[in-house]
Amino acid sequence: MSSLARRLTDSRVPVPDEASMEGARQFDREAADQGEQDTTQRKVEADGHDPGSLAPENRETGKLERTALYGTSKRYRPHFRDPSGREVTRAFDRKIDAQRWLDEQTVALVRGNYVHPQAGRVTVGEWAESWLAGRSHLKPKTLASYQSLLSTRVLPTWDRVPLSKVGHSDVVAWVAGMRSEGLSASRTRQAYHVLTSMLDAAVRDGRVARNAAAGVDLPRLPTTDRRYLTHAQLDDLAERCGPHRLLVLVLGYTGLRWGEAAALRGRRMDLLRGRIEVAESVTDVNGRMIFGSPKSHARRWVPIPRFLRDDLAVQLADRGPDDLVFPSAAQTPLRVQSFRRWHFDRAAVAAGLDGLVPHELRHTAASLAIASGASIKGVQSMLGHASAAMTLDRYGHLFGDELDAVADRMDAARADWLRTEGGLASVRRLH
Fold first, then answer.
1. Contact, 119 vs 161, CB < 8 A?
2. Residue-wise pLDDT tens digits, 45-78
3. pTM for this structure?
């Protein structure tokens, strides 16, 4: 006799027969099954993924069914399979809510923009590592700028936020907060563009359905008038720069970027043809001078005015093909900060050009070329712009005088025609 039977006998309670015992065991099994379903349901509600999906033959996907808790709690559970084959399910109190959710997921699947709930749980900080690693092709200075913006502006706010939890209103508040802290409009826009670029990549990777940062109003950049030096002003500035006179003239008449001029080597100079081959650039990245390709990643040839060729020949007389044309005193690439501190800024003030920066010499080269009759395509080639449209956007207003000259030449050409063939044509019409 079992211990259970002995206890029942001792307490003078009748011992149940075998049928009653089997009924009790069936009740216990059903209770255990119900407990297991409750546990499974809690897991489903927690992460949106049904652990029972490993047995797909037990369930037809894309259907709406009653849960085991019908009548007591979450009563309806729709489920379907995502493109990777994983089963996704959620529990709802009301049938209409469950059906609406299932319809929304079905539409997303058909449109191809479905995102699994687990995909968006990656945090912005975790995603930033993947995003930055995929941009190793960018120039070192650009990468350093991204890293700085991430560490100082983006991650302090968004590091632990899941991608799916980034809200549009939160991004708006973040942008407004940076401005209220006194951050410049330029730096604020740069930080925003890093975040929105990361979210764009997350959309393409199927992490989120849309970019929550899109469409945020950004602070306007302050408008500054470009300065274009005349021949006289450029010559005066160059003379005041002492040992760097020739460098200033080259910048002001060829339109080289600073990094291109600082990386220029003797073998890139063809004085017989009057050309400079722009094939290299150097950039200061966290105190290290890094050589690389020009900004446009394309080589170009820049014309050298004849009056500069003799001076350049003297500059190259004692230099080898691989020597820098405009080095520092230590024969290393000349840093723009040192050039400005010891020569350029002082010369600009003395010449009455306070606040002038070396990059404005590039604008000057464009304006002098246009005033000399250069075409849009010619200026584009000289400056290394990606398109003529870019050249027009920046310097189109300088072509006004040239258009006036074109009109004058057309007037002169017609007047010449009228004096010759035009007069004879009038006589023929009279007869």
1. no
2. 444 444 333 333 344 555 666 655 555 556 788 8
3. 0.70
